[in-house]
């Protein structure tokens, strides 16, 4: 059962303590990765500033929406998602330092390994939430937004590394275009049922973009990989949009 209600004040104190402990631990992890990047790879101030900026934005949003978790414990699932969010902030910093990444094969492989780790942990959070009985709209949304931002960062990486044209940014922007469209078409704000197709398409996007980062993948091969993935994403969003609009009309018609 997914929790929707906000927690009470006494429970909120416990929840905030757990979240603060997690964020502090993730901050140490991120700082360690940043120091390693500066000391052992040709990454500099831009890498550090972007990574810290993204980290600050992500966890400020997490803290502000925390009371909607619906449980007194932060939970293992959100700890894993937070670790992934920390990795994504470092990945974002590395992506804007593409000249350094392109000039140093070790940096390219290091970026690829970090992306693979962040990707591999996706799904672990959902399993932990179900196992611990700590499923919530907050946790599901947190996981989804980390995935969406990772896709945006990876699609930007494909452009900046010269693997693909700007069209690939559609992969990363599709989620945010959908949110913007919902402000114009209220029907798109409706609730979607769970969908294996939606989860599979998300996994495909990340897997394809991750593979494109490999130094051995040429621009020509990247195009062959990215076009079907983008087509699948457009199809998935089209199906969801049509479902929401049809469902909204059905509800209006029954009144």
Automatic annotation (TrEMBL):
Top-level taxon? Bacteria
Give the lineage.
Bacteria, Pseudomonadati, Pseudomonadota, Alphaproteobacteria, Hyphomicrobiales
Q: Does the keyword Protein transport apply?
A: no
Record's Gene3D superfamilies?
Answer: 1.20.120.1760
Membership in a protein family: Belongs to the CDP-alcohol phosphatidyltransferase class-I family.
* Molecular function in Gene Ontology: phosphotransferase activity, for other substituted phosphate groups
Taken from the UniProt entry, a GO cellular component term is: membrane
- One GO term (biological process): phospholipid biosynthetic process
Q: Which UniProt keywords apply?
A: Membrane, Transferase, Transmembrane, Transmembrane helix
Sequence intervals crossing the membrane: 12-35, 41-63, 75-96, 108-128, 140-160, 223-246
Query: Which PROSITE patterns does this UniProt record tie to the protein?
Result: CDP_ALCOHOL_P_TRANSF (PS00379)
State the protein's name: CDP-alcohol phosphatidyltransferase family protein
Xref: InterPro entries: CDP-OH_P_trans, CDP-OH_PTrfase_TM_dom, CDP_ALCOHOL_P_TRANSF_CS
Q: Does the keyword Kinase apply?
A: no
